[in-house]
Every structure is written in C-alpha cells, then in structure tokens.
Write a structure and sequence with these properties.
206 residues; alpha+beta; 8 helices; 42% helix; globular
C-alpha cells in the first residue's frame, strides 16, 4: 500500500506543471476554491482583488496536474515592483501529503528568480489561542523554512491578526530594513494610506 502511495505521489509530481494564471483565472480561484481554504474573515471583498488585478498589482500561479488545478498562490505587489507578497497559498485536498507543497515552492522560486524577493506572512505562534493552534502554526513555519524561507525580525499586525514575516530571497538577499520597507509599501498600496494608518502595525522583534 505504501509503495502504491509513493508511486502515485511520484507520478503526480512528474506530471505537474506551473503556469501563470490569467486575471480571469485568479478571480475564479479567489471566488471559488479559496473559500474552501481560508476563513471568510481572511478573504477580501472580490472587488478589491478585481481592482488590484486591473492595476497590475495582483497575480497568481497555479500548479496543474493533467489540466487540473492542484495548488495555487496569489500575490500582491506594487505595480512593476520587484517584491511580491504571498497573499494566499493552498494545495487542494486531493494533492496534499504528496510533496506538492514543496514542489510548488521550488517551482515558484524558479519562476520568479529575476524578482528581488517574496514575502510571507504567517500567523505568529506566540499569538496562538491554544496548544493545538500553536503546534499548527509552528509546523507551518517549519515547512516554509525547509523550503527556503528565512524568518526576519519583522512582525506585523494587520487588523487584529499578528504575523511573523518570512522572506524568500531571489535575486538578492535583503536586509531586515529592506524587508520592512518593501512590506510597508505593499501594505500601503493594497489598503490605501488611511486604512494602513488605522489597521497596520509593524515592528522589529526583540
């Protein structure tokens, strides 16, 4: 049974291909399967995504297996900027535990190798409400670290959610100060100055 499961995982990865999503596909993913993967309070109004797409400040990648979406990542950025903020990332249920998540991140780094960096917000383990949530958040962070992400000294609070900030260096290895400035810039662009001032707090960890 284990051998068959391993063979299936190998076969899936062999047939996987990364593609940049069209604006229509991004919106379809966001208003469709993303609702199954993220709590409603973490999803922005679809109109916000449409606006950012129209301003070339939002994009997505999809990993497909035999034409079927297996995983996706949606990114926010300042138009024509070299920094991407990983906004949403998920592997569809039927492809989990097959190495698809690591394969996606490896392909993602190759696809964006000429960009400067990819920033990741992960829910801070220190802000977990119980042990189970703490373990889940710690495990998630470990996954990103095993796949090339580096924990920075930056932390943020967006609305009421506390985040640790990771960076995946691409064309350069940024300092924490550069990460701070780039992340603040993306937040400002996404939310606008008023909401940024009211709902975003950024600081350095001690």
């Amino acid at each position: 049974m284990a051998d068959k499961k391993t063979e299936k995982a190998v076969d899936i990865k062999r047939n996987a291909s990364l593609q940049k999503l069209t604006a229509k596909q991004v919106l379809s993913v966001y208003t469709g399967v993303a609702k199954e993967h993220f709590p409603v309070e973490e999803l922005k109004p679809a109109a916000v995504i449409e606006r950012l797409l129209g301003e070339e400040a939002y994009e997505g990648l999809g990993l497909f297996v035999e034409g079927r979406l297996a995983a996706y990542a949606l990114f926010a950025r300042i138009p024509k900027g070299g920094t991407l903020l990983l906004d949403y990332y998920a592997v569809l249920a039927e492809y989990r535990n097959s190495g698809m998540g690591s394969l996606f991140l490896d392909n993602m780094r190759q696809f964006y190798k000429e960009k400067e960096m990819i920033l990741l917000e992960t829910e801070a383990p220190a802000a977990a409400k119980d042990k189970a949530e703490y373990v889940l958040r710690t495990r998630r962070n470990g996954f990103y670290e095993r796949n090339g992400a580096v924990l920075t000294k930056i932390r943020s609070r967006v609305y009421d959610v506390a985040f640790d900030i990771f960076v995946i260096p691409l064309a350069k290895t940024p300092s924490d100060e550069e990460v701070y400035q780039q992340l603040a810039g993306v937040y400002r662009y996404m939310l606008g100055e008023e909401k940024y001032g009211r709902h975003v707090r950024m600081a350095y960890r001690e």
